[in-house]
Amino acid sequence: MPLLKAFVDKCSYAEIKTFLIVLFIFNFIIPIVNSIFKISIAFEIPIVSFTIFYLLLGYQLDKEMPSILCNKQFCAIALLGCIVLLIVANSYLLSNGNSYFNYNSPLMVVITILVFSLIKGIKVNSTERLWQIDRLCFGVYIVHPIFINFVYKFLDVTPLNAGRGYLFMTVVFWIIFVLCSFIASWVMGQIKPLKKYIL
Q1: Which comes out higher in pLDDT, residue 43 or 5?
Q2: What is the largest CA-CA distance in the chain?
Q3: How far apart (Å, rounded) are the C-alpha atoms in residues 47 and 188?
């Protein structure tokens, strides 16, 4: 985060846009093309991280939101359309439809942008409870891979085991992981050294 902050502080919006386009092509477009057409595109860049892309994308959208994304009705309809497309791709059209649920799926980028656009600008009368939840989010970010890896790798249970019910089980797993992560984050917050130096 300190490195990214130093980077964006020195860059213009145009330079960040260019960097986002490059990251999008190499982290999202090329992998999905490789997956669908079973080919291997040899072009690579040394920065292969969808995490950096999402962080910079959020920064860019916060500073400069395209006018079309300010239309909440459009964003809601487009988001519903994307969800329907995900369901169809997973259930009927593509044998590798599950790849559209990955972090590096272009469709997930669109969904992320639409959700961000819907939430941005919402007025909240009382922020105290929201702020308490916000304080747990960094801990959730830290611990959630532990639960995912335990279930996926140690117990060998994934949403893929449900076959056609992959989408439903993905939601179920998401709810379980979120609840476990928030509880673990709250417990970590009760440990004074962790709260002072990490959380």
Answers
A1: 5
A2: 52
A3: 32
Mean pLDDT of the chain: 84
Rounded Cα distance between 41 and 43, Å, is: 6
Question: Measured between alpha carbons, how far is 109 from 102 in angstroms, rounded to an integer?
Answer: 10
Mean pLDDT for 22-39 is 83
Question: How would you label 19-50 residue by residue, b for 16+ Cβ within 10 Å and e otherwise?
Answer: bbeebbebbbebbbeebeeeeeeeeeeeeeeb
> Quick one: average pLDDT of 179-189?
94
Q: Once rounded to an integer, what is the mean pLDDT over residues 55-75?
A: 91
DSSP reduced 3-state for 49: coil
Closest CA to 148 of 185, 168, 178: 178
CA distances from 7 to 48, 57, 92, 104, 138 (A): 17, 14, 43, 23, 22
- CA dihedral 169→171→173→179, nearest 10 degrees, is -150
118, 72 contact by CB (below 8 A):
yes
**For the segment 108-123, what is each residue's pLDDT rounded down to a tens digit?**
899 999 999 999 888 8
Please count the residues of the chain. 199
User: Is 127 in a helix, a strand, or coil?
Assistant: coil
